[in-house]
Amino acid sequence: MAKVTESDAGTPVPQRLLAAATRLFAEQGYDRTSVQEIVEAAGVTKGALYHYFGSKEDLLQEVYARVLRLQQERLDAYADSDAPIEERLRAAAADVVVTTIDNLDDAAIFFRSMHHLSPEKNKQVRSERRHYHERFRALIEEGQKAGVFSTATPADLVVDYHFGSVHHLSTWYRPDGPLTQQQVADHLADLLLRALRP
């Protein structure tokens, strides 16, 4: 089991807890990981865990929420830039692939374990993810209205197509495989733009 190391000692407790939980959830599964194992791996007490997170379920929610927050910030920056719409959409489409691969354990854990979240927490996460998808869809719609992208396929379906690929990355992508994360990101972004070509 992964234990806290000397280099982790200066890391803030919430990040240590999240790192330990992510490792353990990925290795053992959410349901087979105890709070005691998480605090031992993080080198903290149960009291520290409950100070920052109300429960193991809160840790699971935060594993995914932190990735989604990062992706939302980056998408907003691409969407708000002055670049042409094709460049903004391509950058956003590639970025969500790279950031998902950078956080592959988090994505795999979440999709494998989200059914463990309470209905309220599940609804909250779905709402945050929907907000991200809506902002992404708005880029497609902007390009469609401007005549840059084809309107043959509804924007909703284009979004589902791209994110279907993104959500399956954890099932097949391997860092030691033939393609780098940037190459995968470029291929998927290019596929998306080809599908939108008038």
TrEMBL record:
One of its GO terms (biological process) is negative regulation of DNA-templated transcription. InterPro entries: DNA-bd_HTH_TetR-type_CS, Homeodomain-like_sf, HTH-type_TetR-like_transc_reg, HTH_TetR, KstR2_TetR_C, Tet_transcr_reg_TetR-rel_C_sf. Residues 34-53 bind DNA. Residues 11-71 form the HTH tetR-type domain. Keywords: DNA-binding, Repressor, Transcription, Transcription regulation. Coiled coil: none annotated. GO terms for molecular function: DNA-binding transcription factor activity; transcription cis-regulatory region binding. PANTHER family: HTH-TYPE TRANSCRIPTIONAL REGULATOR RUTR, HTH-TYPE TRANSCRIPTIONAL REPRESSOR KSTR2. This is TetR family transcriptional regulator. It comes from Streptomyces boluensis.
